[in-house]
Sequence to fold (359 residues):
Amino acid sequence: MRTTLNRDERGVRRGAAVLLILAALAGTGAVRAEAATRALPAGCSGAAPIRCHYAVPPGEYDVTVSIGGAASAGRTEMWVEARRLMLPATSTAAGAGASYSFTVDVRQPEGQPTGQGGNGNPGLDLRFAGAAPQVSAVSVSPAPRPLVAYLAGDSTVCDQPAAPYTGWGQMITTAVRPGAAIANYGDSGESSGSYLSNSALFPALLAKVRTNDPVFIQLGHNDKQTSASAYRNNLTTMITRVRAKGGIPVLVTPPVRRLFDGNRLTATALHVNGVGVNLPAEMRSVGAAQGVPLIDLTARSKTLIESLGPSASAQLFLRSSVDGVTDNTHFSQYGATRIGDLLLQSIREQNLPLATYLR
Fold:
């Protein structure tokens, strides 16, 4: 949601936002009275980036921010928790402001559920970065009953704690309107079997699923020695258990690796594993047999990567010259954004539960 505010409206919004923040922080420590008049909202400090912290328990929260409004032009992007992008770099003219709203999932640990890369800070963390970040108001309140879209996946999906590694689940958050939140339970190194059995992963996710919440399941990168029957059984078990909770399972075939033979991707890139199992084909078969919606991210990413070719496609992955590491499986921020866009396109085309909440 975006609205342009005049100077008086900005003053009213700023005052109201500070009051909401003070209410949200009641009982978490003394807040000085002069916080209402200082340049940054209560709970925020720094300049580039500006960091804000709110001591709220795990759950879903509606967050509204006002950016700009300073004497100079601004260029601001907003990240939450473990590098989830909510607002791409956005320009504001000198003396102008804009307001944006989101629904944010807060959990602990805030990044990968098994704590890989660290547990982060309890509560809600916001970070305003960019060439000239500006924030004039922040309000935080519990979301009454949002749709929560759960992501069950591996390192190509998860909230990667440190750049340059980026999961597509960290980038699709920019497209989601308030009233829906992305709960990313992706975790590095997980196969379909390990994800299903680890109490911090599928069982933890399943415990939170409510009626009509979609659960997007993308596993396969690490099923390198998994048999066809085991892979199918693992996926079917997840589908059955999500449905038993009233959730809506959605299968997502894994995006390709960047491994070329000439101008075409290899069988390994297309997830034919070490024991000859074509994992995307098995997932398609399970989806058809179970009547489950399926997003064919393998096919869509294959088309994208092969259209770019061996050279240009490198920018979607990690390059030694830019990132300090060469990695043809994991995405750069740009690559995660492009792959996430393919997923969002499929959600819209199939009118999946999250579709009505996409910008």
In short: Residues 1-38 have pLDDT under 50 and may be disordered. Helices lie at 7-24, 192-197, 202-208, 228-244, 279-290, 297-312, 320-323, 333-350. The longest helix spans residues 7-24.
